[in-house]
Amino acid sequence: MQFMTRFCILGSALVLALPVSCDDGDRDDNGSSSSGTGLTDQTGEACAVADDCFSTIERDDIPGEIRCLDRVDGGYCTHDCIDDSDCCAVEGECEEGDTQVCGPFESTGLMLCFLSCEDADLNGADPEEYCADFHADFICRSTGGGSTNRKVCVPSGNGACTVVDDCPVDFENCCENVYGDYRCYDAGGADGRVCLE
């Protein structure tokens, strides 16, 4: 009887120690969700419309308008901001240790929150690998938008490419990423990469 009691207590402790995931999507070898919904941060989640975003936190407390960016593959949940303090301002918006920054986005004229891949926030990690840990399709790139641009993790511009003509105007470079795949990058993202002519 004593043995059974000890076994049950030990078994219960082991069950409680197992990691629990809230993501229903399948994960790849990088631990990233192939469905685009594997982020623990609310910012950066895949979306089709703004109502898809920040559904598990107090949406009314988020500073600025909630947006679903459609200029990146799969959509990208974010919200308006004035400075970095507006990002992660609501409890549950960000995973502890993840940094978000407020930056301009391309030619939209908007200031938005993004997952940061700036050198100061990476603790020496490779920016591409860091972003891929959020999602396999994420790259580290400039937000664009002028002299106050930031380096952020977002889905690559137009996905995979085999020739330069596969890429859109905003992501006109077909370059190799750290995994040996060719993706479309803007000029900032292409800097230092092996790119097709």
Strand order of the largest sheet: 3-4-6-5
In this structure, how is the largest beta sheet organized? 4 strands, antiparallel
Low-confidence stretches: 1-38
* Whole-number count of domains: 2
Mean pLDDT: 76
Query: How many runs of DSSP E, i.e. beta strands?
Result: 8
What would you note in describing this structure?
There is one protein chain. The protein is α+β, with helices and mostly antiparallel strands and 197 residues long. It has 2 domains: 130 residues, no CATH class; 41 residues, no CATH class. Helix content is 14%, strand content 19%. It is built from 3 helices and 8 strands, in the order αββββαββββα. Strands 3-4-6-5 form a 4-stranded antiparallel β-sheet, covered by helices on one side. A two-stranded antiparallel ribbon has the order 1-2. Strand 1 and strand 2 form a beta hairpin. The chain is globular. It starts with a helix and ends in a 7-residue tail after the last helix. The N terminus is likely disordered.
Topology:
Elements: H1 2-17, E1 66-69, E2 76-79, E3 100-104, E4 111-116, H2 127-134, E5 138-142, E6 151-155, E7 173-176, E8 182-185, H3 187-190
Antiparallel strand pairs: 1-2, 3-4, 4-6, 5-6, 7-8
Properties at a glance:
single chain; 197 residues; alpha+beta; 2 domains; 4-stranded antiparallel beta sheet; two-stranded antiparallel ribbon; 8 strands; 14% helix; 19% strand; disordered N terminus
